[in-house]
Design brief:
The chain has 362 residues and is an alpha/beta fold. The chain contains eleven helices and 18 strands.
């Protein structure tokens, strides 16, 4: 039996219960989890903002050690330390052919096939985003496993699987921040903290963090923010004051709210670039007039998983971590066991802290 956090139905509380996990089949890998990050996307899965068959084991940001592999798996073996990739590419679809693996048409396929059963009644269970890392162990497709580069602590490596790849990619691949530019980051959660660090690494000169919580200032400045603003109706105006009257060159929105997206766009200069990382609901509608779109000449872009290729980007990020340029431990503001996931969700909803880590027994 494996203990796991199960979402029995959309909108229902998580249940910590036992599941039966089969041995890995052909092309599959079984992993003992060391840690899992609590991400806002898990909340979006639980409340139905993102579609996920249920009952499901949540969690998609994780790292651990391979315990067994199925037939045909050669890239990893028992004892290897790995990071989970919740959006593995198939290398064969239209988008992969365009070298856009973050848009792979097959990336979500793992989430729609049962992978385990409930101990109490044998009901089939689905793996959220194909990974199901809110559990002591999981079984995933081999394509969802990334070897962890040497020199990275295994627990904190969990953050690499979502928050760090997303934030780093938003800066370097989507917004393409250049040295000397000004960057505004909206939302100082896990992804926001990774984005701030990536902007600093890119050489941004002015880095402004924006959040509703004044308690986030210390975290933001430690991650690289040169300025910190409490979100208000005057945020766009204040941003212009901080950037010579023009507005930021780049804004990166990590919240997923219509009003925040609109503010982020309005806070950039003419010709500025806004990247939206946050996941909002269908009811979050953003409006622009045709005249202002013409006049300001700004760019507004969506961003999936940081527009990253994890196999390419993970070794690069790991080098930054080893060199001390990227601090994983500073992003973690709470550590808990599996039984504390509900409290971690509550803290995330209340906007407290950075990233919470669920740490599993060794």
């Amino acid at each position: 039996m494996v203990r796991a956090a199960v979402l029995p139905a959309v909108g229902a509380p998580l249940e910590i219960t036992g599941i039966d996990l089969p041995a890995p089949g052909p092309g599959q890998v079984r992993i003992k989890l060391a840690a899992a990050g609590v991400c806002h996307s898990d909340l979006s899965l639980s409340d139905g903002t993102l579609r996920q068959p249920v009952p499901a084991v949540l969690g998609h940001e994780g790292a651990g050690t391979v315990t067994a592999v199925g037939e045909g798996v050669h890239q990893v073996g028992p004892g290897d330390r790995v990071v989970l990739n919740w959006a593995p590419s198939c290398a064969a679809c239209h988008f992969c052919g365009l070298d856009e693996p973050w848009l792979c048409a097959d990336a979500a396929a793992g989430a729609t096939t049962p992978y385990a059963t409930l101990c109490r009644d044998g009901s089939p269970l689905y793996p959220a985003l194909g990974t199901a890392v809110f559990a002591e162990e999981t079984v995933v497709r081999a394509s969802a496993v990334l070897p962890l580069p040497d020199g990275i602590p295994l627990e904190e490596a969990a953050l690499l699987g979502c928050a760090v790849l997303t934030g780093y990619g938003a800066v370097h691949h989507s917004a393409r921040v250049r040295a000397g530019e000004s960057v505004a980051v909206y939302g100082v959660g896990g992804v926001g903290l990774a984005t701030l660090q990536a902007a600093r690494i890119a050489g941004a000169q002015t880095i402004v963090a924006v959040d509703v919580s004044p308690e986030k200032e210390e975290l933001a400045r430690a991650a690289g923010a040169t300025e910190f603003l409490i979100a208000s109706g005057d945020t766009a105006r204040t941003m212009r004051e901080l950037t010579g009257g023009h507005g930021a060159d780049v804004a990166i929105e990590c919240v997923g709210r219509a009003d925040t997206i609109r503010t982020a766009w309005s806070s950039t200069r003419r010709g500025g670039r806004t990247t939206v990382v946050g996941i909002g609901g269908r009811d979050q509608q953003v409006a622009f007039s045709a005249l202002e779109l013409f006049h300001f000449g700004r760019t507004l872009s969506g961003c999936v998983y940081g527009n990253s290729d994890p196999a390419r980007d993970l070794p690069v990020i790991a080098a930054h971590v080893r060199a001390g340029r990227f601090d994983l431990s500073g992003m973690v503001t709470a550590r808990t066991g599996l039984d504390g996931i509900a409290q971690a969700f509550e803290a995330m909803l209340a906007g407290r802290g950075g990233r919470a880590l669920v740490v599993f027994p060794g």
